[in-house]
Amino acid sequence: RDRLITAPKMLCILTAGASLAAFVGQPFGTSSVSHSRTAPQAAVMMAGMPLPAGSLVALTTPMKENGDVDIPTLRKLLQWHKKEGTNGIVILGTTGEASCLNDDEKAEIMAVTREEVGGELPIVVGTGTISTPATIAATKKAQLFGADAALIVTPYYVKPSQAGLLSHFTQIADAVDIPIVLYNVPGRTGVDMSVETTVALSRHPMIVGLKDATGDNARVAPMRAIIGDDFRLYSGEDGMARDYVLQGGDGVISVTANVAPCAVAKVMAAAAAKDGGAAEA
C-alpha cells in the first residue's frame, strides 16, 4: 500500500502495488464525511474572485541585470495586462521562475500583484513543491497575501504513484481554505496525473480546476463529461489551447500572453464561442 513518508524538505512516496481504485469514492481527509461539490463549492468561490474562463497569463518575473526582481517593471506589466484584456494573473509559476526566487522575493511579488490588480483580476499563485507540508504552508501564505486561488504542480523528481498523488493533493486541500488548481506537466515533473486521478480529486470542494500541460487534447472531452461544468479546465500548451477550448476546455494559462495578451484573449473568446475560424485567425 502507498506509504507517505514526510521529511523536513522532501515527500517520499513509496509504492508497493497500491491501487487507485481503493481511494476513488472514499471520503477525503480524515473526516468520515464525504465532500460534495454543490453547496460547498459555491462557498469556496465566494471567498475571493472566481476563476475566469479565457486567457490567464503565466506571468514572467521581470529581473534586473543583477538578478534582483524589478518591481517597477512588474507593476507596469500588471497594469498593461489589465488594459489588454487578460482575464487572470498567474504568478510564481514555471514562467515566473519561482524556483529561483527566495521567500522574501515571493512575498514582495505577491504583495505588489495584490496592490496592482487585486479585486480587478483573479490572482492565482503557484505554491507547489515536492513536500506536502511545505506546499500547505506556501498555500496558506499565498492566501494571506490575497491570492484568489493556488496553482499546485504535481510533486516533481520523486515520481509518485497515482494513489500517492491523490493522497498528496487531498491532504493539501483538506488543510487550506483557498481554491486549488491542479497542475499536470509531466514533461517537467516526470509524472503524469491520470484522468482517473483528476476526476477523483475534482470531487473535493477545494479543488476547482486543472492546468493541463500534457499536450493530449483527447483528455478534455472525457474529463468534462464526467466532472461537469463547474470545474475549470485550462490548457497549459499555447499551441494547442484553441483546440482544447473547442473540445470543452475553459481557457489557457498562457506564456504567449506575456507578449500578446490581447491576441490570446481574443482567440480564447472566439474558441469559447465555438467560432473555430475566428479563433484560428
Structural write-up:
The chain is an alpha/beta fold and 281 residues long. It has eleven helices and ten strands. Strands 3-4-5-6-7-8-9-10 form an eight-stranded parallel β-barrel, surrounded by four helices. It has a two-stranded antiparallel ribbon with strand order 1-2. β3, α2 and β4 form a beta-alpha-beta unit. α2 packs parallel to α3. The N terminus is likely disordered.
How do the helices and strands line up, and which of them pair or pack?
Blueprint: E1 3-7, E2 10-14, H1 39-45, E3 54-58, H2 71-84, E4 88-91, H3 103-117, E5 123-126, H4 132-144, E6 149-153, H5 162-175, E7 180-184, H6 186-189, H7 195-202, E8 207-212, H8 220-227, E9 232-235, H9 241-246, E10 251-254, H10 261-272, H11 276-280
Parallel strand pairs: 3-4, 3-10, 4-5, 5-6, 6-7, 7-8, 8-9, 9-10
Antiparallel strand pairs: 1-2
Helix pairs in contact: 2-3, 4-5, 5-7, 7-8
CATH class term: Alpha Beta
CATH topology: TIM Barrel
Shape category:
globular
Largest sheet: 8 strands, parallel, barrel
Strand order of the largest sheet: 3-4-5-6-7-8-9-10
**Distance between the amino and carboxyl termini:** 51 Å
Question: Total strand count, please?
Answer: 10
Going by CATH, the architecture would be Alpha-Beta Barrel
Summarize model confidence as the mean pLDDT.
87
Structural class comes to: alpha/beta
Tally of discrete structural domains? 1
Radius of gyration: 18 Å
Proportion of beta-strand residues = 15-25%
Q: Give the SSE string.
A: EEHEHEHEHEHEHHEHEHEHH
CATH H-level homologous superfamily name:
Aldolase class I
Task: Report the helical percentage.
Answer: 25-40%
Our count of helices gives 11
Uncertain segments of ≥5 residues (pLDDT<50)?
1-34, 38-46
EC number: 4.3.3.7
GO molecular function, one term: 4-hydroxy-tetrahydrodipicolinate synthase activity
Family: Belongs to the DapA family.
Function: Catalyzes the condensation of (S)-aspartate-beta-semialdehyde [(S)-ASA] and pyruvate to 4-hydroxy-tetrahydrodipicolinate (HTPA).
